[in-house]
Amino acid sequence: MQKKKKVDLVALQSPFMRIPQMPVAVARYLLDAGYTDIFQLQGRSAESLLEEIRKSSDLLPGADTLPALRLAIYFSENAGNPDRSRLNLHAWQ
User: Fold this and answer.
1) Helices in the chain by DSSP H: which ranges?
2) Structurally, how many domains does the chain consist of?
């Protein structure tokens, strides 16, 4: 019998999940760092957010964390008219 994986319902229901291709783990990291809404990411750098996440989380951020943070910042700053080609993680590698 396989063990069921825990689902982070709070992260799944957070505003961060409106960002295309946002990993649930990165939404959780942002919540743990004290962010509650997308607009709070405007004007921030992905690197500074990553440092905050490292300080506030017991989990080690994965390789997709920095690209996801860059995507989230772009989405927050261009919510009205984002370039569709930039709304995926690969554009931020």
Assistant:
1) 9-12, 24-32, 46-56, 65-77
2) 1
pLDDT digits (tens, 9 = 90+) for 15-45: 999 999 999 999 999 999 999 999 999 999 9
Residue type for position 61: P
Residue 77: count of CB within 10 angstroms of its CB: 15
- The answer to whether position 2 is within a domain reads no
pTM above the 0.85 mark? yes
Question: Mean of the pLDDT values across residues 38-63?
Answer: 88
- In the chain, the amino acid numbered 1 is M
pLDDT top residue among 90 and 57: 90
Is 3 a member of any domain? Answer: no
In terms of residue numbers, what domain contains 26?
A: 10-92
C-alpha neighbours within 13 Å on the C-beta side of residue 17: 10
Residue 4 belongs to a domain: no
Cβ–Cβ < 8 Å for 59, 77: no
Domain membership flag for residue 82: yes
